[in-house]
Amino acid sequence: MIAALKIIHIAAISIWAAGLLGLPSLYARRDPGAGAAQTRVHRGVRFIYVGLMSPAALAAIISGIGLMFLRETFTPWFTAKLLFVGLMVALHLATGRQVLRLFEAEHPYSGWRHAGHLALAGGAITMVIALVLMKPALHFALPDGLMEPGGLSRALPGFNLPEVP
Questions:
Q1: Full pLDDT tens readout for the chain, 165 residues
Q2: How many CB atoms lie within 10 A of CB 92?
Q3: Is the pTM of this model over 0.85?
Q4: Distance (Å, rounded) from C-alpha 68 to C-alpha 77?
Q5: Cβ-proximal residues to 6 (8 Å cutoff; 6+ apart), any chain
Q6: Which among 64, 49, 55, 75 has a CA at the least distance from the CA of 10?
Q7: For a disulfide at 12, which of 24, 30, 59, 91, Cβ 3.0-4.6 Å?
Q8: What is the DSSP code string of 106-162?
Q9: In sequence order, what are the residues at sequence separation of 6 or more whose Cβ sits closer than 8 angstroms to the Cβ of residue 161?
């Protein structure tokens, strides 16, 4: 059971990570005056996000939760890994928002945004891999009350993700 979940988890993470790193390069190909070619790029971007990346992200998270409970990995390095997985999820959501807005003329995709996304995604993916492979002996304590129900909302009052138009 554990071996099957690991195979699913690694395959899903690979597809998800490839999408997080690859889609910004497709965004950079944006050319509002290209007509039919632009429509093909737009359809391709949407297919990759909706048909490949999102199911892979879901499979990675579900299989990861299963592995977490089967392997009992409640250690500080795992908590750090989950922080970077959370960054990957945030980047996934930002990617979805970008897919919705990318091909509108009033929402250009700049080079700095491309570089920033690649740097954040590459860094988060690298840290997840490094933490899993090295399993370092980290020693840190979470703030008091953070692990209690509602602790995160008390630690970050008023924090909300922006609404998607």
A1: 889 999 999 999 999 999 999 988 887 776 666 667 777 878 888 899 999 999 999 999 999 999 988 887 778 888 889 999 999 999 999 888 888 877 676 666 777 888 898 999 999 999 999 999 998 887 777 677 766 777 767 777 776 655 555
A2: 19
A3: no
A4: 13
A5: 63, 67
A6: 64
A7: 59
A8: TS---HHHHHHHHHHHHHHHHHHHHHHHH-------PPTTTTSTTHHHHHSTT--PP
A9: 93
At 20, list the tokens: 């997080």
Place of tokens 């409970």: 69
Q: Which two tokens stand for residue 88?
A: 């990957």
As given in the structure block, the two tokens for residue 44 are: 């391709």
